[in-house]
């Protein structure tokens, strides 16, 4: 009798298949993705207008702004920090770019200037946090006020309109039937995914969030990495601000109010640990989509904005609680 005849019980799956399945089940974005699917299905049953192509396109376009900001926020939170200045920075970048266009500066140069402003504010945040050892929440709270004040001073408190017509392409145009803001969002996420998963910089970001002192002792240049993280956060905020300015076709100094909270919510809902060291960029995208679907579904059902804030706040608390429990 062969050894196969004596075998009993189920045949074990190949170790490679098991490891792949375990990797998927333990991925930070797995539970958020399940939650997103459940929410999406719920909204389909709650409102007949939700699943229309026009509505889904509108949801994706609205999600793109918050999702782009959340990329930089993800990097900051992964290091154990936070960036509260992203909303005003996007407003300042958009208004300065709009003002330069009105002054006759070519659109590409105006866009570069807007992105540069985001990078400068990110560098200021990073320098104060990395080298001056100031708390991230205090530094970015201060620069939040500075950026908002500069935007209001620059515009005199009034929107800047009369922008070149073709500039609307970045906020309202489409390529092959896909909205340009969505394509910009996808491009930003691809770049972020490559940086965080296939470059040494990404490994350093996770290491700092996991244990900053251990990362420093292992030879990682912690200060430089933190500086670059906040520069990235400023740049993504500026890109989102330029897309929003293009969509509105005006530079709004009061735009971006509360956007930093939505970006933090997207990162947390995406499975990232608020204490740093754990999370995935794809999870942030899922979190941003979850917020977009939730906002859209509640609007279609006629739910008051005040009630929506209560619901979103409760969901964020639950997400943080689940994240903390898994980390323990």
Which characteristics define this entry?
328 residues; two-stranded antiparallel ribbon; mainly alpha; 15 helices; disordered N terminus; 1% strand; globular; single chain
Q: What would you note in describing this structure?
A:
This protein has 328 residues and is an all-alpha fold. It has a domain at 68-258. Helices cover 73% and strands 1% of the residues. It has helices at residues 3-6, 15-25, 30-46, 53-78, 86-102, 107-130, 136-155, 169-172, 180-198, 200-210, 212-217, 222-248, 259-269, 281-300, 305-327; strands at residues 174-175, 178-179. It has a two-stranded antiparallel ribbon with strand order 1-2. Helix 9 (180-198) packs across helix 10 (200-210) and helix 10 crosses helix 12 (222-248). The longest helix has 27 residues, at 222-248. It is globular and about 55 Å long. It starts with a helix and ends with a helix. 45% of the residues are buried. Residues 1-10 have low confidence and may be disordered.
Give the helix proportion (percent range).
Answer: over 70%
**What order do the SSEs take from the amino end to the carboxyl end, as H and E?**
HHHHHHHHEEHHHHHHH
Structural class: mainly alpha
What is the 3D shape?
Answer: globular
Helix run count: 15
Within the largest sheet, what's the order of strands?
A: 1-2
Cα distance spanning the termini: 51 Å
What's the pLDDT, averaged over the residues? 88
Which stretches are poorly predicted, pLDDT < 50 over at least 5 residues? 1-10
Q: What is the strand tally?
A: 2
Taking all Cα atoms into account, the compactness measure Rg is 22 Å
Sheet with most strands: 2 strands, antiparallel
What is the percentage of strand-forming residues? under 5%
């Amino acid at each position: 009798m062969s050894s196969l005849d004596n075998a009993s019980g189920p045949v074990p799956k190949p170790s490679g298949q098991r490891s792949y399945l375990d990797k998927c089940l333990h991925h930070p974005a797995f539970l958020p993705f399940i939650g997103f699917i459940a929410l999406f299905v719920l909204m389909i049953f709650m409102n007949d207008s939700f699943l229309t192509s026009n509505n889904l396109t509108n949801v994706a376009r609205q999600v793109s702004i918050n999702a782009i900001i959340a990329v930089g926020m993800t990097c900051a939170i992964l290091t154990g920090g936070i960036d509260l200045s992203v909303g005003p920075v996007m407003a300042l970048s958009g208004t300065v770019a709009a003002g330069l266009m009105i002054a006759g500066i070519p659109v590409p140069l105006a866009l570069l200037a807007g992105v540069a402003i985001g990078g400068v504010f990110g560098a200021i945040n990073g320098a104060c946090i990395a080298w001056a050892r100031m708390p991230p929440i205090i530094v970015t709270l201060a620069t939040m006020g500075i950026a908002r004040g500069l935007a209001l001073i620059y515009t005199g408190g009034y929107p800047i309109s009369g922008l070149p017509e073709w500039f609307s392409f970045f906020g309202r145009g489409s390529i092959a039937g896909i909205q340009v803001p969505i394509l910009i969002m996808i491009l930003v996420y691809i770049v972020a995914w490559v940086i965080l998963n296939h470059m040494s910089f990404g490994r350093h970001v996770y290491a700092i969030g996991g244990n900053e002192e251990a990362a420093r002792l292992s030879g990682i240049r912690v200060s430089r990495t933190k500086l670059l993280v906040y520069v990235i956060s400023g740049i993504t905020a500026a890109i989102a601000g330029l897309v929003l300015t293009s969509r509105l076709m005006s530079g709004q100094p009061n735009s971006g109010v509360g956007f930093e909270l939505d970006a933090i919510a997207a990162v947390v809902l995406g499975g990232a640990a608020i204490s740093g060291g754990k999370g995935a960029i794809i999870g942030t995208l899922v979190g941003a989509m979850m917020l977009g679907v939730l906002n859209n579904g509640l609007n279609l059902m006629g739910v008051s904005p005040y009630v929506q804030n209560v619901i979103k706040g409760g969901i964020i608390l639950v997400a943080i609680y689940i994240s903390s429990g898994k980390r323990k």
